[in-house]
Amino acid sequence: MGRKVLKLVGLVILTLVWVVVILALATQFWDPWKLGLKDADYDMVNALNCLNEACDLWALPGNAVIPVGNTRITTDAQGHRVVPGSHPTGIPLIFLGDSNVMGYLVNDDETFAHFFAQDNPQFAVENWGVWGYGINHYAQIIATQPPTAPIVVFLTDNDVRVNFAPVESIRQDDNTPPGIGLNLIRYAEVLWWTIKPEGTPLEELSEAEEREAAQWFAEQAKLIQDRVLFIGFSGDLPAEILAEQGADVCTIEMYPRSTYIGPFDGHPNPEGHAWIAAEITANCLPQIEALTDRIP
Fold first, then answer.
1. How far is Cα 166 from Cα 158, in angstroms, rounded to an integer?
2. Is 255's pLDDT higher than 50?
């Protein structure tokens, strides 16, 4: 009896090993969502340039076409992503934010900045979004490079964290192109996005950590809140904090899970970006117009 059990256990283990091997090989050559998702983080990290010695501020290269997975990011001379359909003779308007503003794994004509520009020809829209940015980076940019146009800062829940990881450190951790087995690990790492209920990334923080993060966010936001309009998702902590401290904030509804770029990543796909643009137009246009009226 004991020998039969051992044989059965051995068979199960051998089967599991073969399953892992087959999946590892499959994810090396098979990209079911046709996004290049398994290579995108590597592409994105290695495209960024440090702007200071500490590398606590980084940017996209200027006048470049950057492959990210199966998409392309085109930048202007300043390293900002181009906005097809923007009207150069319109009222200048800058969207500043992280990878959601930049448009991660979508093309230039699939970002919400593009869709907003199409729907609102009165504005000359600029996309200053950069992968990995947080509220501390927005404060640095506005302080050191005073923009000539009104700024809309687009926030998500992860902005309550300290998005402060230097690019060089990220590169050290992520400087090897995905190989056999690594793609499977990348997919598995984010599988929880698929199975977890709708909610906030802050779920994993303790109460004390969340309070500390919220206090830090509020302090950073105060540095720029007299200068900008904030846009955040309804129910997210950033929008609640900003409303409490009297900042100019507009809330929109979160894009639905069906518009994620893939089952393993919560960034919006083109339909999600179109959703965001429509929400901003429907809910925030009066505040954007008031912003452009009061800032030359």
1. 16
2. yes
pLDDT grade, residue 156 (50/70/90)?
Answer: confident
**24, containing H or E segment:** helix 2-29
Query: Which pLDDT tens digit goes with each residue over 2-32?
Result: 677 777 877 888 888 777 666 655 555 555 4
Element (H, E) at 41: helix 37-47
| All domains of the chain in start order, with CATH | 33-175+196-294 (3.40.50.1110)
For residue 266, the surrounding DSSP H or E stretch is: strand 265-268
Mean of pLDDT values over 70-82: 95
Cβ neighbors of 119 (< 8 A, separation 6 or more) are: 277, 278, 281
Distance CA 28, CA 288 (A): 45
Which DSSP state fits 101?
H
Name the band, by pLDDT with cuts 50, 70 and 90, for residue 289.
very high
> Which tokens in the block code for residue 56?
């606590």
Compute CA distances 55 → 4, 59, 167, whole Å: 59, 10, 6
Q: Name the residue with tokens 């004390």.
A: 208
Please name the residue ranges forming H helices in the chain: 2-29, 37-47, 99-102, 112-119, 135-144, 167-173, 182-189, 192-195, 207-222, 237-244, 270-294
